[in-house]
Amino acid sequence: MSKTGTGAESLMLSLMAERVDTIFGYPGGAIMPVFDSMYDYLGKLNYILTRHEQGAVHAAQGYARVSGKVGVCIATSGPGATNLITGVADAMIDSTPLVCIVGQVGAQLLGTDAFQEADVVGISMPVTKWNYQITEADEVAEVIAKAFYVASSGRPGPVVLDFTKNAQIGKTALKEYKRCSFFRSYIPAPIPKSEEVSAAADLINAAKKPFALIGQGVTIANAEKEVVELLEKADIPFGWTLLGKSAVPGSHPLNMGMLGMHGGYAPNAKTNECDVLIAIGMRFDDRVTSDVKMYAPQAKVVHMEIDKAEISKNIKAHAPVLGNIKETVPMLVAKVHGAKHAEWIASFAPLYKEEKEKVIDKQLHPKGNDITMGEAINLFSEKTAGEAILVTDVGQQQMFAARYFNVNKPRSVVTSGGLGTMGFGLPSAIGAKVAAPDREVILFAGDGGIQMTIQELGTIMQSDIGVKIVILNNGYLGMVRQWQELFHQKRYSSTPLANPDFVMVAKAYSIAAKKVAKRDELASTIDEMLNHKGAYLLEIAVEAEDNVFPMVPAGAPLSSIRFE
Amino acid sequence: MEQKQEYTITAFTENAVGLLNRITIIFTRRHINIESLTVSASALQGIHKFTIVVNTTEDQVQKVVNQIEKLVEVLKSFYHTNDEIVHQELALYKLPTKGLLEGNQVEQIVREHAARILEVTPSFTTIELTGYKHELVLLFERLDKACGVLQYTSSGRIAVHRAKQEVLTDHVEALAKLKGENKIDKVSGKTWDWLT
Ligand SMILES: Cc1ncc(C[n+]2csc(CCOP(=O)(O)OP(=O)(O)O)c2C)c(N)n1
Ligand SMILES: [Mg+2]
Fold it and tell me: Are A558 and A268 in contact (CB under 8 A)?
């Protein structure tokens, strides 16, 4: 005889069966039965109350990206649900597995403009991998199982479940939970075809100047080792996309740096010089390719991808290899010959040297009095020696961090890539720290972006989350100001910021904090921060009108890269 | 720019709430207008079939089809040029019966187009024609000129592929592997049972 219970209880049992250990959320009228049910599980569950639903969803994203598990967040109907949407869209474009459960008015009230009713299924449809409205308690267990399967399998993504109140309180049999691993309309990963792998191997084996592009797909597939094996065996230098940063060790000798708009000179220039371009788990975003017509026209392209819709979407693939790269990369390793490309690899060095002289040295060892972002980030990088988790907000500080903060471990970068969501940093750092409490989590945020979700300092206070927050304060919406300087004759429309005293703000939340403006205090303050147990906020006053270089202007060919 | 032409997209799907919306969003996002859209049953039990006509480039239609197929409730999607399919539309024409009775011109037109008379009342007559879009339009123009068409409507395109069966074999094979099944039956209405 099976027990009966409410839809809300069925939900909690289902989440337990999916081994959910952490939930981020915010309560409200239409989701109260779920919160009531959750009260019975607080011993087994790490529940974190954020200060805004956007904080909850970004925290769930940070948690998912670092743990590799599905991030879970819960919110109420109407405004609670609409507040999640930015994070859901962010998770969609960055392939982050999420299950977001939101309350909804009772099924009998649907479509009547009831209090706090919003058409969440309609609103979230374009930005979810799947969504569903649960209107009966009996559906709960099966829908949750499907939601976790869809969110985490194949190319991951967010699932939104709209949970009507009657279904939360309705009675249902609490049967044994069955995880979902199959439904007939969904094939998470195409079956690898050995002909495709052979065709790719032939191109690679004939290549004199191969170059690989590493994307987040490698991280998602947990294929870091396999990919390094391939690159080493065939001696292929590689660059990485922003989200691919921690898919490959930062200090690997074949690592040539970041691709794209603010990437390195060598990887961008060599993209247009290589004979075979091997893209692994990346999608040729326009921030990587810039002008697609001028992108690697000389190269034969091998594209290893799980999502068929990405093949030849932006860049034509001569040898597509569809399938989970955890399977296809080892198949390829078996077919590629050991090779040496010493001369080709050595040809990257002069370009790097040029970039170093024109850009990197100036950034890391500035002559001026003001601290630069790159200098501060580089110090953190040295002191954490590739061991820390890097979280960023969006803007100049994000690009400097991607360029100058070294990570050597997998799943160690959390940043908003595809959507570029300001305000992502602080809450996602919370999620990252919850996922990896024993690792150092360092957030770099701008003075603009931090204020988009600064209320999450309250979450840090209440749930005692030991993130290290670095505000790189240039007094501007710096990245926009940079474009105004370079392309709009320095007409600084809407970019100067009057900022609060961030140290006082942190103190108001009982978070240790300090401000540094002088170079000679920087290293010792960073030490103090890193030695501090628990959260710490460090505001660093940096050069106001600094620019991120190199830069490929948006839509221009890679060859139009600028150093100043 | 690549040449635009008419393509017929078909998609085999589950019967899920909101799926129509998910599919049309894919077109809206890319600023592609849907010329016609029909949803019906398919030869496979429980599987629905979308038939969508668009005027666009092959590059675009290919990408759109991939995006449709990526939806978790879609089994498979294809695109075809007009010579790869057999397709028809259906139109209804409402005329004043008076027009029909004055002279034999209207009757002549109806005969020439092999249209059917569905209903005659003292005031109105309803005529039906199945055919290609341009045939339906031609009949409209002729009737309108002869006696004035009071109401006109036409359906979306429906189409079947020139291949023998619903072409889902690849999909079924992939599913069988997912499920760890060795035997792969040819697609028929019945084979779907083990997939549910
Ligand atoms: C939600 C949101 N609004 C606007 C933007 C556009 N935007 C991109 S970078 C940026 C400036 C960020 O300024 P700040 O946080 O101070 O960082 P900085 O560039 O100065 O390091 C803006 C406004 C965005 N990416 N996200
Ligand atoms: Mg700033």
Answer: yes
